[in-house]
Amino acid sequence: MKATGDGGASARLGRLGMHLEVATITWNVVEAGMAVVSGVLAASVALTGFGVDSAIEVISAALVLIRLRAGLAGREPDETAERRTMRAVALCFLALAVYLVADGVAALVTNARPQISPVGIVITALALVVMPTLAVAKVRTGRAMGNALLIADAGETRLCAALAAATLVSLALYAGLAWGWVDPVAGFVIAAVALREGREAWEGELGRE
Question: Could you tell me the domains of the chain?
Answer without folding.
Answer: 7-202 (1.20.1510)
